[in-house]
Design goal:
The chain has 2 domains: about 200 residues, NAD(P)-binding Rossmann-like Domain (Rossmann fold); about 100 residues, UDP-galactose 4-epimerase, domain 1 (Alpha-Beta Complex), CATH 3.90.25. It is built from 12 helices and 13 strands. The structure holds nicotinamide-adenine-dinucleotide and 2'deoxy-thymidine-5'-diphospho-alpha-D-glucose (DAU). Nicotinamide-adenine-dinucleotide binds next to helix 1, strand 2, helix 4 and strand 5.
């Protein structure tokens, strides 16, 4: 397959590109990426010399660029998005632009050109807060943040193109993903890089909100499975099956680094904080995929990667990073 991978210079997209080129020797990949603050060409260093790889710097909202590249591809995989919930709470507009309008631009090119597959990378956050049980693919979407609403909007546009024009759309809904090459604003890389510098680990609210942490290689293999073995018109959940709260994430990171508990710091809670996500992954498992890396092992591997690759993340924690940090993180008010 000749793949067009939008957003392939980001965290999960770059792992998907590395995985595709090493596991599918007949495939080629063109990455289209705008290189926002979260995109990083260095994530693609391991494949940069491959004759089966090409990078194009551009925006998925630019119809002309998308049309040209889509015309050279057999399938499209769309990772491109604004992806951080806290930034969506501060400035939702760019999320709607990229995650909804940008998805539409890719779909519209796919409609005219005709591809074998269009894989839309979505998120378990579209199901909203799940107080009990596990979300199955047929469950209603109840997004509760501007980020998850934008991702749900992108999915709905993809459904519309599937129903109206027969675009062979497959959607994946992955859970919270961690591992090497993740921009250090999400909880696990933020806690690791802060702890390495003996800085506080900011835990939102009571620290009891639960996530299902999924190692990035497991997520990328799940997307690869859905792309190749999934049925157009179907949606697939991807998750590990664990339930871990903010305190436990901090404990795992501090334990792996041998740092003290006193680095934990409670800060103001996220607005509208979803307390729990949990997905039922039996549909994807039916295609032969299963997760491989338990959180305790994945955290150790990730800690080791950030310890050994400080020249990758230190330049990212400067300037705009700290401006956002000081706006987002507020100490809890002292008790009355
Ligand atoms: P990321 O923020 O690390 O990467 C996003 C990439 O998209 C960056 O390289 C960025 O430069 C690029 N991009 C942004 N806007 C663009 C535009 N207009 N045109 C072209 N490129 C653009 O994100 P990630 O964590 O790797 O997530 C990738 C996808 O997976 C997203 O769609 C996200 O919603 C979804 N997802 C993420 C997680 C997670 O836990 N990180 C879990 C489930 C689903
Ligand atoms: O579930 C999939 C989603 O996972 C993806 O769609 C998103 O792109 C990705 O960012 C992630 O969203 P979360 O909101 O779950 O990830 P985040 O790392 O921002 O937060 C994880 C949990 O940790 C959540 O309960 C909020 C809490 N948290 C987060 C940060 C950044 C903290 O306690 N402190 C923090 O500093």
């Amino acid at each position: 397959m000749r793949l067009l991978v939008a957003g392939g210079a980001g965290f999960i997209g770059s792992e998907f590109v590395r995985h595709t080129l090493s596991s599918h020797p007949d495939d080629s990949v063109v990455v289209l990426d705008k290189l926002t603050y979260a995109g990083n060409l260095r994530n693609l260093d391991p494949v940069a010399a491959s004759s089966r790889f090409r990078f194009v710097h551009g925006d998925i909202c630019d119809a002309r660029t998308v049309e040209t590249l889509a015309g050279e591809a057999d399938a499209i995989v769309n990772f491109a998005a604004e992806s951080h919930v806290d930034r969506s709470l501060e400035a939702p507009g760019q999320f709607i632009q990229t995650d909804v309008y940008g998805t539409f631009v890719l779909l519209d090119a796919a409609r005219r050109i005709g591809h074998s597959r269009f894989l839309q990378v979505s998120t378990d956050e579209v199901y909203g807060d799940v107080t009990e049980g596990r979300s199955a693919e047929g469950d209603p979407l109840r997004p509760r943040s501007p980020y998850s609403a934008s991702k749900a909007g992108g999915e709905m546009m993809a459904w519309a193109y599937r129903e109206s024009y027969g675009v062979p759309v497959i959607t994946t809904r992955g859970s919270n993903t961690y591992g090497p090459y993740q921009y250090p604003e999400k909880i696990i890389p933020l806690f690791i890089t802060n702890a390495l510098d003996d800085q506080p680990l900011p835990i939102y609210g009571d620290g009891n909100a639960v996530r299902d942490y999924l190692y990035v290689t497991d997520h990328a293999r799940g997307i690869d499975t859905a792309l190749r073995l999934g049925t157009p018109g179907e949606d697939y959940n991807i998750g590990y099956g664990g339930e871990t709260n903010g305190h436990e994430v901090a404990d795992l990171v501090l334990g792996a680094l041998g740092k003290p508990d006193s680095l934990k710091q409670h800060v103001r809670d996220r607005l509208g904080h979803d307390r729990r996500y949990a997905v039922d992954t039996r549909k994807l498992e039916g295609l032969g995929w299963e997760p491989d890396v338990p959180l305790a092992d994945g955290i150790k591997q990730t800690v080791e990667w950030y310890r050994q690759n400080q020249e990758w993340w230190r330049p990212l924690k400067s300037g705009e990073f700290w401006e956002f940090y000081s706006r987002n993180y507020k100490p809890l008010s002292p008790p009355p």
